[in-house]
Amino acid sequence: MTTASVLLTVSTTWSANNDICEKEERVGRCLKNIAEVAAHELRETPATKEQAIRIMRDWIQKNNDIKNIRQDESFLLRFLRHKKYSIPMAQQTLLKYLSLKKYYHDIFTNLDCEDPKIKEILDNGYIAVSPVRDSKGRRVIVYNMGKFDATKFGCWDMCRAHMIVYEALMEDPIDQIFGFTHVGDGFGSTTAHVTTWNPVDFARLIKWGEQSVPMRHKEFQLVNVPAALKYIIDFAKSKVSTKISERLHIYTSIKNLHNHVDVACLPTAYGGHIPLQDMIEYTRNLLVEKRQMTLALDKMEIISTAGIISSRNPTNTKGNGVSIEGSFRKLEID
Fold first, then answer.
1. What distances in angstroms separate CA 35 from CA 40, 178, 210, one per listed residue?
2. CA dihedral of residues 71, 140, 29, 289 (deg, nearest 10)
């Protein structure tokens, strides 16, 4: 199956008036071939999908440890597709997702795109969604470290900006199937970007985030990474699975990055075709569209974590599986 059979060919030019690209892309997708990708990569068929959703709903309705859980197809498919229709694993991921939201309440609740801090971070272009998917149909998320004012905002603000974008994208069935390509530029990183983090929280969020947030991370492509920031990246790699670690790549130049990421998906600052401001506006519109859905996620509750199968309970601070000595504050940006 070729990429062209899944998506319309992406234009190599972009203009501010070309925001219909996403609409044309959606209309032009061949639903049959999207179903083929879902079947090949996720073991999804109409029959297994229907049955799995029914089982998940029945489990939710009978589970006294959770409350007010969404039971619509889109929400349940986040977890089923993430775990390739292993129902027990999907159930565990849902419980861990709710537990993570409860444990880090300040990060994961009241994710409002109208919140002044979140709005400023997004308007500055720290994290933006490309309106053009890559050649494999994946959603491309762009990160500009130099656009994050670490003297004004802290690590929790950074996390909230990430999560409001991620929650909106996880609703998209195409994103659930094809997954995500992350492209990050470390240019402009300062010591403040590193020292804003507490190493224990950083390790927890990296490790638990992989286990709890149902996103199919397919590629992490990074460029212009200074030495101290690379130290943090290497530290993060030690906390995630081998599969995710092997999908992270660092390049020394934009030219090298172009050999691995479709230029048509990138902002002009990366040598791509799309002005960053267009990406910012596209992201803004996406978040406004999903605003009520995102805020409504706060209604869901986990009353007890007893159902989480783990050697360590994430709500138990004595056995969190994270042991880190020292601090990032000793690091310097070269």
1. 9, 11, 25
2. 50
Give the amino acid at 116. P
Comparing C-alpha atoms, which of 281, 282, 263, 283 is closest to residue 273? 263
The identity of residue 322, as a single letter, is V
Provide the residue type at 46 as one letter: P
| Residues 139, 182 contacting (CB under 8 angstroms) | no
Please name the amino acid found at residue 237. Answer: K
Run of H or E including 219: strand 217-223
Q: How many CA atoms lie within 13 A of 288 on its CB side?
A: 8
User: Is 7:28 a contact under the CB 8 Å cutoff?
Assistant: yes
The whole-number average pLDDT for the span 258-270 is 93
Would you list the DSSP string of 199-210? HHHHHHHHHHHH
Q: Strand pairing of 139-144 and 127-129?
A: antiparallel
Characterize the bridge pairing of strands 180-185 and 301-302: unpaired
pLDDT number for residue 66: 98
| Distant-in-sequence, close-in-space partners of 1: CB < 8 Å, separation ≥ 6 | 33, 36, 37
- The continuous run of DSSP H or E covering 180 comes out as strand 180-185
Q: Tokens 């501010």 belong to which residue?
A: 16
Q: Does the pLDDT value for residue 119 go beyond 50? A: yes
Task: Give the whole-angstrom CA distance, residue 262 versus residue 258.
Answer: 7
Q: Helix, strand, coil shares of the chain as percentages rounded to 5?
A: 55, 10, 35
pTM for the whole thing? 0.85
**Cβ–Cβ < 8 Å for 266, 142:** yes
Asked if 141 contacts 133 with a C-beta cutoff of 8 angstroms, the reply is no
Rg (CA), the chain: 20
Q: 83 and 93 in contact (C-beta within 8 Å)?
A: yes
Q: What is the pLDDT of residues 137-148, one digit of tens each?
A: 999 999 999 999
